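Researcher: Structure for this, please.
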Amino acid sequence: MKKEKSEHLFIHDMSSRRRGVKAISKATVSEARYLLTQAKLSMVKVSKRLGMGLQLVKRIRNTADPNSNPLVDGRAKVPRFHKIHQRARELIDMLIDQAKTPLTLRSIQEQLVSLCHLRVSRPYLGQYMRVVANSSYRKIKPIMQIHNEMRCKLQRQLAASKYIQALHAGMTVINIDEAVIHFTDHRSRGWVRRGHLN
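Model: Predicted structure, token format:
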């Protein structure tokens, strides 16, 4: 009995995207197509008469094949974030990994325009940063006054003596001083990969 009913329905299962299962009778789709093509009614009138959305009526009008399912949006076949090509993705990854100051969407936009000749909106870029680049927009931790106490100064002096010993042993020491960031950069938030410190 279920098979016979499903033969007279267009079904679109969207349960994987938590949107449930949509269904519409083939007779209703045929009637909408007749009203649009033969009776020459407007999409608004067909929508009100049959009680269906304008987007669905538009898909029925634009689909020539009577057996095609109008519930399936053709735009779903286009992969998400298709505008951002491979070279732009590599540039964004490099900017995230090598950023020495808080990274903002504006700065990423400027780099994409200048180096990749690609223009994308900030909301689109923000979604890409969260979904694909696995990044989050977090508050940058400021340098507190406690870091200038005597205890911290003694710890830095002890670390400096260890660095001198390492240099005498022939090792290469790379010292990254972030103390001036708090005074020279007033941005309070930036894009950082999830699980990484800013």
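Researcher: Any notable elements?
Model: The chain has three domains: 2-77, 86-141+187-193, 144-177. DSSP finds nine helices and four strands in the chain.
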